[in-house]
């Protein structure tokens, strides 16, 4: 793709197997040039998006996966549990601007290249999975997410475009095409809230909503992003 990583050609990407990718990912190199193994499944505290519910037999020989619980499902249960007893968890009633929650992220204009957006999305910042697209007044126009990038790759659009010459605006127009609409988007693209809203707003508990764009009332000026991870970090701290 030519950005931060793979030096493979497009033809090699088409034939590159998951097994080979796993081998390269499982072997890392430290600052001294020494290689060391790394488990494919690894995550620190609050880095999980889903939690497996497993039923184990008495001898633990045949564990069965029953369900994958998402953070949004857990958040919905928390909201419902404290719906009529918010005094037990008063932080849910506080306005967003009074608590240390959210992430201040980079923004891009509609004429920024798809390559610039991709560079921001794959940098070492796990909280950033979407980038607000703004006008000259920093007012929210749309949002570009990793899911949008992946969808373009899935449909091999990358083979027909130049990441540095293809703008975010062009990518959004492509996303609105009937051929891609059912794959790229399902429901509203931008989920928003105000600084005066409380954490008890259930928008983040809705399936498929990973983050809220915090905007200024009236002007729609982007002020930040709140992710599900941000909320859980506050609730569990």
Automatic annotation (TrEMBL):
Domain CBS: 101-160
PANTHER family tied to this protein: AMP-ACTIVATED PROTEIN KINASE, GAMMA REGULATORY SUBUNIT, LD22662P
Record keyword Repeat present: yes
Record keyword Repeat present: yes
SUPFAM superfamilies documented for this protein: CBS-domain pair (SSF54631)
Stored PROSITE patterns: CBS
Alphabetic keyword roster: CBS domain, Repeat
Similarity annotation: Belongs to the 5'-AMP-activated protein kinase gamma subunit family.
Protein name: CBS domain-containing protein
GO biological process: cellular response to glucose starvation; positive regulation of gluconeogenesis; regulation of carbon utilization; regulation of glycolytic process
Native source organism of the sequence: Glycine max
Gene3D superfamilies (alphabetical): CBS-domain (3.10.580.10)
Top-level taxonomy: Eukaryota, Viridiplantae, Streptophyta, Embryophyta, Tracheophyta
């Amino acid at each position: 793709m030519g950005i931060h990583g793979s030096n493979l050609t497009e033809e090699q990407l088409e034939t590159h197997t998951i097994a080979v990718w796993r081998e390269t990912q499982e072997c890392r190199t430290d600052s001294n040039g020494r290689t060391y193994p790394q488990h494919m499944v690894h995550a620190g505290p609050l880095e999980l998006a889903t939690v497996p519910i497993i039923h184990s037999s008495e001898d633990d020989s045949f564990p069965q996966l029953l369900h994958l619980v998402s953070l949004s499902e857990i958040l919905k249960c928390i909201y419902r549990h404290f719906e009529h007893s918010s005094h037990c968890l008063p932080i849910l009633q506080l306005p967003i601007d009074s608590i240390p929650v959210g992430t201040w992220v980079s923004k891009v204009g509609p004429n920024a290249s798809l390559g610039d957006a991709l560079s921001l999305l794959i940098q070492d910042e796990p909280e950033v999975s979407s980038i607000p697209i703004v006008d000259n007044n920093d007012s929210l126009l749309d949002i570009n997410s990793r899911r949008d990038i992946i969808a373009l790759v899935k449909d091999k659009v990358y083979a027909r475009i130049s990441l540095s010459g293809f703008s975010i605006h062009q990518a959004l127009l492509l996303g609105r095409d009937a051929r891609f609409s059912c794959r790229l988007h399902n429901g509203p693209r931008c989920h928003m809230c105000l600084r005066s809203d409380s954490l008890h707003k259930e928008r983040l508990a809705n399936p498929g909503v990973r983050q809220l764009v915090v905007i200024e009332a009236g002007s729609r000026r982007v002020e930040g992003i709140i992710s599900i991870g941000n909320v859980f970090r506050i609730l569990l701290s």
